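User: For my dataset I need records formatted as: sequence, then structure tokens, nothing else. Please produce one.
Assistant:
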Amino acid sequence: MIVRCLALLAALGLSGAALAQGSRISQSEDVMVFDQCLQEAGLAFNPRVQCIGRVFEACLEKQEDDSTTNVRECYSRETALWERLIADVDTNLERRQESAARTELGEASRTWEAFRNSACNIPYVLNLQREPASVRGMECFNRSTALWALQLAEFVRPAGN
């Protein structure tokens, strides 16, 4: 199981081959799509959930085909943006909280990460590591990361907003 989790994490990183092929969408376009969607969604959680998959979809539209390599690249690019949001929120929360709250945040983050890695390993177990499993695992990884990022962002937002 650890090997499969490591394989999934490695697949989420942009491979040298994917970079060598050159993507038709730039990292700045990814950020623009991501930030614009979150801004248009406002502060409410449910509308922001609709932003999950937007960068992936925009990225895949610019690819020559929807090969597994391109799908992996596009999921990796979106997941990186959700992870950036998690890091920003974590920093914000850690700065604003006292020691007990920081400890709880750290514990919650570790528990969430273990859950995500285990849950997103299920497609590999069910599909015996065939190609659809890697795509479904990455989709799960992206969606889970996004939902955690949005949940953490809710904690940062002042009450009543």
